[in-house]
Amino acid sequence: MLKIFNTARIRYDELYADALTYLEEKYGQSRQVFSIASPFGQLLAVMLSLGRLIFFYIEDAITELNIYKANRDESKRGLVRLTGHDPSRAHAASGDLKISYNGKEIDMYGNTLIIPNQLKIINNITGLPYVLSLQSNETRMTMIPRSSFITKILQGEYEVQKVTGTGKKLQSFAISVKPNKYMDQQLINIYVNNESWKVYESLWDIPYNAKGCIVKTGITSGIDLFFGNGYNGKIPGIGEEITIEYLLTEGSEGNIRAEETFNFSFDEPGYDLIGNEIELNEILLTTLVSSVSYGSDPEPLQLSVLLAPRTSRNYVLANETNYIYFFEKFNYFSIIDAFVKYDDNDLSNDNEIYIFLVPDVNKRIKTNENYFTVPEAEFTLKSDEKEKIYKLIEQSGQRLTSVVNYIIDPIIRKYAINISIEIFESYSKEYITQKIEDKLSEYFLNLRRRDKIPKSDLIAIIENIEGVDSINLWFVCERNEVSKKQNPNNKTIGLDDFGDIIIAKDELVLIRGNWIDRNDILYEDTLNPNKTGMINIAFKDKQVTYNTEKHQENLTDLK
Amino acid sequence: MLKEIYHRSINDPTYQEGILEHSDAIEAYVQKIKMILNTSRGDILAYPNFGVNLGELIFNHDVSGEKIKDEIISNIIQFCPENKFFETKVDVQFKRGLTHDEALVDIFINGTKYLGILVK
User: What digits encode the pLDDT tens for the residues A511-548?
Assistant: First the structure.
């Protein structure tokens, strides 16, 4: 059999060289005849180049079919979709706003002010738009002193896109949005010829010829919209107008903490009873009743890749994994845990799922705050946030009626960090202190471990700060100090034999003060270096000698 | 003995009918040079530097005849290994055409003119 190529030599230059060698031998020609300028050489080179491209396409196609190895974002999104996972879009921040009449008299017909639903207001501090979410198409306010009403607000503004039905089965439409703007996960309404059609999770859920459709997160941006085939869902007729109304949001950017300064202005007018426009900024005042929260960005692609294999194809919240998956999609929490209590010999709670959620403080932190200065309340869910989550679970329609879920409040365990440190004499203590605070803040803000916090992590971080020669560190646990004060022989609590922090299932560890140790020393909730606080650093200067310098160099090489 | 595909165009005045293969070393060399002159850069898959953008070079105001010669010679050296066996000379002459300048590129091999291309 003719043997030109060797399977061990399949690189392009090897294939080319082997083909040339074969031709040289076959035709008794010198290699210079087959240059790219000769017809023979050119045909050969182009054929081999085409072969190389074919190999490349095959390799690329195989690589892009593997969810963990795919390079292109579109491939990853496509594969994620194939697994049945629908990547979560952004969630608009929401809260309650009180709108009250300021008593100013204006020229209007009657004394009833009509405020339409979806009225746009602007946060003058951030410039972001919000909309009123009323229970009906409008609300009427009687203009008498102290009259007011409370309404829900959502961050974003409504937009509409229109497409035309083709009359064919399984019509699909890709609805894109502007860059850096996100479509809300839930606030999407579909109308066909101005009639509202219901959004279903799956094609199989749509009843025979029912007016329904499926909305999935788009592969590139926005959403993909699918209609039925007649049996499962009605087919939009040829030329029928399909309207897609959605809330365009900025996600987590729209969150406002209750104590934050804010200033809303009305961007659109209200009306009196005969339809005259009324400038609302002149007569209405706004007050935040609750924080505007729960705004989150779309699910990051890497998270989608991790979540995709865990997708529940039946879309039911039945077990702990389903709940973890459900909450991970919101991209709002730093710690998510769900557990059952099967092993407590109590049958009455076997249908209960306990959900442990810690909001991602990184999404709530202000630019001038760090882990140690952010208010403690930001680490836990407020009651209105918990209500929203319960509501969200119910609205999703995924909860099994036999399963009861409880969002448990984390038990805050307070710790302080004592550091004994030796620094080189040319470095200032203030600089090192600041660096330690910054690095530890970064560490704790990104902490995801649920079993323990090893002190070796912190030692390694601090040791890498320039100017630090030697460091020792230990944690002080509030609970342990209370216990030891009662009886010094009591077992150590909250710390293991190594001095690492142990985290129980429903505990949240915080480095915070405001407690007293066994020697009646008050650990204050401060970073003031002159007081005993969350982080206490004892400095010792180290003189730099020739040998210490050489040792540092060797150590750097070893690392 | 050299064997090469005969690929002179049917419109070539020296075209010989019925020949598929030839063994003339100079003919093969001339055909290679012709291939270089008639190919624009980037036309051949995987060889982006092969060919001379003759039209572009000639109608470019910033390029002199010498530069065009250099470009052709460097391509010949790179892609025609047999150039070391033949003394090759390139001559470029510009002349005024009806609407714009025209150029005549002549190729001399061992002192004999083998190829002349008019670019207009």
Answer: 999 999 999 999 999 988 889 999 999 988 766 677 76
* Distance from C-alpha of B111 to C-alpha of B105, rounded to nearest angstrom: 15
* DSSP letters spanning A73-101: HHHHHHHHHHTT-----BB--EEEEEEEE
Put simply, the answer to whether B79 touches A32 (Cβ < 8 Å) is no
How many angstroms separate the CA of residue A23 from the nearest CA in chain B? 11
Give the span between the Cα atoms of A243 and A189, in whole angstroms.
8
Per this entry, what is the length of chain A?
A: 559
> In the 8-state DSSP scheme, what is residue A253?
G
In sequence order, which residues have a C-beta less than 8 Å from that of residue A532 and are 6 or more positions away?
A416, A513, A521, A522, A523, A524
Please list every residue in chain B whose beta carbon sits closer than 8 Å to the beta carbon of residue A45.
44-47
Q: How far is B99 from chain A (nearest CA, A)?
A: 33
Predicted TM-score (pTM) of the model is 0.60
What gap in Å lies between CA A259 and CA A196, rounded to an integer?
A: 39
A25 in contact with chain B, both atoms CB, cutoff 8 A:
no
| Residue A295 amino acid letter | G
Do the Cβ atoms of A410 and A361 come closer than 8 Å?
A: no
Strands A352-359 and A404-408: parallel
Query: Do B35 and A35 lie within an 8 Å CB cutoff?
Result: no
For residues A199 and A242, give the distance between their C-alpha atoms in angstroms, rounded to a whole number. Answer: 13
| Secondary structure of A357-421 as H, E, C letters | EEECHHHCCCCCCCCCCCCHHHHCCCHHHHHHHHHHHHHHCCECCCCEEEEECCEEEEEEEEEEE
Which residues does A554 contact at the CB level (< 8 Å), separation at least 6?
Answer: none
Q: CA–CA separation, A457 vs A532, rounded Å? A: 23
Q: What are the strands, taking DSSP E only, across A23-142? A: 94-101, 112-116, 120-123, 129-133, 138-142
β-bridge pairing A157-164 and A241-249: antiparallel
ipTM: 0.83
